[in-house]
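Lecture 7, part B: from sequences to assemblies.

Below are the input chains for today's worked example.
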Amino acid sequence: MSILKKLTFWRQPDFDADLSDEMRFHQECRIDELIAEGLSPAEAAAQARREFGSPLRLAEQTRDEWTFRWLEDLLTDFRYAVRALARDRVFTLTALASLALGIGCNTTIFSVTTEILFSQPSVHSPETFVRFTPAGSSHIPMTEYRFLAENDLFPLGVIGSREDSEVNWRQGGESYRLFTTRVTGNYFSVAQVPLAAGRGIAPGERNTAVLTHHFWQTRLAADPAIVGQTLTFDGRPFTIVGLLPASHRTIFGFGLAPAVYLPADERTMLALHTRILDGEAAPVTRARILSAMNALDQAHPRAGSHKWSEHLQVRPIVGLASMKNGPGKAVGLFFVMLLTVVGLLLLIACTNVANLLLARSSARRQEFAIRASLGASRGRLLRQLLTESLVISLVGAAAGLALNLTLTGFLNRFELSAPVPLRLQIEPDWRLLAYTAVLAIISAVLIGLLPAWRATRPSVNEDLKRHTAFSLRNALVVGQLTVSIIVLAAAFLFGRNLVQSLAMNPGFDTRQTIWANFRLVPENYATPEKRAAVTQAALDALRQLPGVDSVSLTDTVLLNDDTTHGGPLRNDLSPDPVVLQRYWTHVGPAYFATMGIPILAGREFSDADQKGVVLNDALARRLFGGASPIGHTLNNQPIIGVVGNTKYFSLAEDQRYAAFEPHPRNTGPIIHFMIRSAVPPDTLLRPIQQALLGLDGSAALEVRPMSRAMTLALLPSRVGAGVLGAMGFLGLLLASIGLYGVLTYSVTRRGREIGVRMALGASPREVVRLVAADGFRLIVAGLTLGLLAAFFVTKPLAMFLVPGLNPSDPLSFLAVATVLGAVGLLACFGPTRRALRVDPMQALRQD
Amino acid sequence: MPQPDLLPGTLFLLILRVLDGGPLHGYAIAKRIKECSQDCLSVEEGSLYPALNRMLVKGWVTAQWGLSETNRKARFYELTPDGRKQLEAEKQGFDRMVSAIQLVLETA
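Predicted structure of the full complex, as C-alpha cells:
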C-alpha cells in the first residue's frame, strides 16, 4: 500500500516547490507571531530563521520519507561502477575473462552433474518408485516376475524392464543393431510415461513398439505419420503404437538412450521397479518387498545359490538416496570430485580478480580520500566498491552462463555409443540459474570484500605502511599457487592414469584383435542345428580370409560385457565346496591364442572339445595353491588348462577369478567372433564384413578393432584426464597471471627505491636480486604449502585410479612443482626486466 | 521553563489527535500542540514535516492547498478514515501504557 503511494511520488513534479512554499508559509506565520510579540520585522525574520534550522536538511528528510533511499543509492553506485569499470578497460576485461572461465566451468560441471545424477525419469511422480534387486541380482527371469505381478504382492504395481537389450532392425535391405529397452505389458500404464503421440505398449501385446524421439528423428526422418506403421525387428513385424517426446529419460537414468521400447518376452531377464505409497518410510517398503520375496521363495525356490529374499537391496530412483549404493555411488563421488576441482579453479580466478582489485584500489586511494573528506562514510565507500565487484561478477556470471550454454550444447550432441548408448539432454533450468546466481554473489564477496575493506581503511598514515598492503597481495598469490598445485596435482594424476590405462596391459592383446558382433534374425535360426551350421560356416569363412591368423568366438566380450557367477565350486581334492564370485563365460577353440592370452599350463579348447574347463591363474591358485590343477576336476569337469589373468570388465578392477567352458556354438542369435589379424586390423574390417554378410545379409553386423571397443573401460580416465587437464592448465595460467601482476605492481611501487639504489651505484645484478627475491619467496612459500595440501587432498582420488598408481607418488608432486616453479620464474622475468629499465633520474623526479 | 522531550512514538498520536478536530496547516498543528500542552510540548519543524509526509505515505492524512486565516497559500492536512482508525489504536495503546506505568509507580 505505502509502496504504491511512494511510487506516486515520481508523479509529483512540484514536490520541491510545494515543500519550500510550505516552509516559507511556516516561517511567515512565525514572523507574524514574533512581530505581534513586539519584535521588529528584521529581528523577527532573523529569529524565525534561527529557530527553523537548516531548510536543506529538512527538505532532504521529508523527501526521504517518499523515496527508496537505498534504491537510489544503489542505482547511483551501479552507474558509478559501470563508468569506473569502463574507464579501466584492461583491468575489466582481465577480471571478466577470469570470472567467466571460472563460472562457466563450474556451471558446466554442475549442469552435467545434475543431468546425470538428478534428472527426473520420465515417469509419473518418480519419487514414489523404488528399484529392488532380489538375491542381489540385477535382473530376474520372467517366470518369477509373473509370480510377483499376478499374486497381488505389490498393490501399486510392479514393472519389469531390461534396459540394455539388442535387436536386429531390417530396413531397406540393410540390417542394423539397435539398443532397446524391453518392458512388461503394465510398464507404460503403471509408470505413466508421457508420450508425444499414440499410446504405450499394452498388456499382452507381443508385436508393438514405442519409438524414442531421437531414433524417430535421426533414422526415420521424423515421419509425422509414423504411428500405425510397421518396422521389422528380429525378422518380425512390429506395429508402432507410440512416440516418446524428445525430453524422455529412462527410469534407469545416467543418460541411457535406447532406440525403441519393445515388449519383454519369455526369455527376457527383468529389472524390477515398484510404485510405493507417497511418503512411505524406507523400512516399511523394505519389509513389504521382503515378505513378497519370501512368498517367491516358497513358490519358486532358487536353485543352488542364495534365496530371493537374501541380499535384497531397495533404493529410490531419484534423489540422493538413489546413490547410496549401486553404480550411483562411484559416479556420485566422481562428480563430487569434479565439482571440488572446478570450485578450486573458481577460487583461483577470484583470487586473481581480488588481486587486481587490490592493486586498483591502492591506485584509487586519492579518490577515496577526497570522497571521504567530502563526507562519504566508510560504509558508503565500502558499498561503492562492493557494487563494483558485484557488477564485475554479474557480468562475469552472464558470460560464464553463455560459456555454459555453448559447452553443454556441445556435450548434448556427443553420443557415447558403446557398449550402451548414452546421451545427455542438458537444458538450462532454474537450478542452473540459481547456481550461477549463488556463484556470482560468492565471487562478488570473495573478490570485493578484502580489497574494499583495505581501500577504505580510515587510517591516515596508511600510505606509510604500504608494506602491509603488499603482504596481503602476497598472501593472495601464495594462496593461489597453493590451490593451483592441488588442481594441477589432481590433473597430473588423471593424466598419468590415462597414459597408464592406455598403455596398461589388460592381460590380452588389443592391437591385433578385431571384434565382430553378428546378430542374426532369431526366427531364421529357430533350431540349434541351424544356429550351429551358420556359426561353423562363419568360422570357416573368416579363417579363410587372407591376413587372418585365428578366429574364435565367445559369449562375453572382454571389457564390454560383465558376467558374475557365485555358485559353489567343488573340486576333487577337497570335500567342501568353495563359494566365490567369478567371471564365467563360454569361449570357442583357440580363443586364448586369438586374444593373446598366455596359456600357463595344459592346453586350450580345440574344435573337438565339448566339455572341460579352463581356469585363470588367480582361480587356479585360489583352489589348488601351488599345485598344478591339470587333470583334476572342477564341478565334475576335467580341468584342461590354466591361462593368464586379464582384466574382465574394467581396467581398474581388482584381480578377479575366472573360469571358461567350451562354447556350444549353437546359441545365436548374437555371436561374438574374435579375430586375430596378422595385418593392421583396419584393413581387415571390410573383408570381415563382406564374409559375414555373404552368409546372411539380414544379420546386423558391427566390426571394430578391440582397441576402439574399450571406450567404456577408459571413460573415467579420459573424462578425468580431459576435464582435470583443462582445469589444471587454466589454474596454472591464472596463477601465473596473478604472480606476474603482483611482481609488476611491486616493481612499479618500488620504482623510486630502485632508482635511488641504482643512482647510488647498485649493479644490475643487485637489482635483479632485489626484485627476483620477492618472486622467489612467493613461489617457494606457495610450492611448500601447495605440496603439503595436495598430498592430503589427492589421497581420496585413489579410488578412481588404476591399481599401481599411487596418489602420493613423489613423481607427480615433483613434476607439478617443477612445472609451477618454472612458470612462476617465467612470470618473474617480465617484472625483473622492467626493474632493470628503471631510469634513476626519472624515478627520483617522480611525485 | 525547560521543555521535556516528546515521548518517543507519540508524535504521530499528537498530530492525529490535533487533526481530529478538523483540517489544519503545519504551523497550526505545531501551535495547537504547544497550546494544548500549555507550552510544555513543542514540536520542531525538523520532525513535524517529515512526520506529516510519512503519514501522507501511510495514508492516514491527505493534504490540500488552501487559504490560511491570513489569506496566504497554506497546505492543510486532514484525517482520512484510516487515520481515524490509527488514532483510536494509538490512543488505546497509549492509555494502556500510561495506566501500566502508573500502576507500577503506585504499587511498587
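Note for the exam: Residues 18 and 32 of chain B are 7 Å apart (CA to CA). Keep this in mind when comparing with the next example.
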